[in-house]
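hey can u check if this looks right to u? its 379 residues, i copy pasted from the old doc so theres a chance i mangled smth
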Amino acid sequence: MTEELPGRGPLDALTDVAGIRVGHAGVPGEGALSGTTVVLAPEGGAVAAVDVRGGGPGTRETDALDPRNLVQRIDAVVLTGGSAYGLDAASGVMAWLEEQGRGVRVGPHPSQVVPVVPAACLFDLGRGGAWRARPDASTGRAAVEAAAASEPGARVPEGTVGAGTGAVAGQLKGGVGTASLRLASGATVAALAVVNAAGSVLDPVTGVLYGEYGAGEPPVHPAPAVHEAARRRLAEIRGAHGNPSGGDGARTDEAQAGDAQTGGVFNTTIAVVATDAALTRAQAQKLAGTAHDGLARAVRPVHLLTDGDTVFTLSTGRLPLPPEPTAALNDILAAGADALARATVKAVRAARGAEGPGGTFPSYSELYGTSRSGREPLA
């Protein structure tokens, strides 16, 4: 009997999980290269969990997701730039949820709620040139309002948007990517990744994005001349003026101060994996852990001291698991890793390059092209 392989969801996005919505907002102003992404759960919330593997995490309300603790469901997850400063974006999301009467009920009146808003941040300080241009409560509100205003099952903008605005993956521009899988059981498993890794997403020998290996279709590598030109360009950027973050020397004082503090290597990849399968909180936490395997396929090395790699999971509970759920749960766990690996690839492919006072960050598409043309199948 031939095993039925998972297929992609209709949108190949986190919003293929019914009820999940995504909104992005950027930080306005000159010198800004940062933003916030909000994943909004359906009315009534979703079972949630988290797994933090990086050595330098910046998070909020993650302890509330421990299966041993009180909170059973949450209404939103915040992914944000701005390092620890950017966690302030969650307060804007919290205020919006309170206005909607969404949160943990703590009094007799429907308005007496305390929204629990888990959040994780990535490091992008100074990448646009202005050290203090980072998300705040207004950015979080704008992102959650964008999510709420989106239609059910809407496409999710990818690339240099939201929390991925200032993201960098190794020497390449990072960003937001999303992917989904539809399992034989009818369950959907989807991921959204904000790729901002200290490690590399690119195989230096072939030019293939690491996450393409085993991503469900034959990986391809660039034509040799294209790959050699890309390597030369990256080497030029890396060596320009001895700038650790690959800039071109046109640096503001604030951006230089940022490099002095960070060495140009502080990063963090953050993600949400969602499913419509009904998971317990413990099962959701297991999914968050195994989803990190997908990140490990796509970024090398991963989970370093200067990363704060964090994966949240959401379960909307539409589809009950069978009475003996082990096989079905194994499929979901495997799909979470697959979806996150492919979301990472899509983030890097969709990103637009950035060049300015904060540095030079070329995109994969600029170096290798936006399509598979000019690229050859791996033997």
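The longest strand covers residues 310-319.
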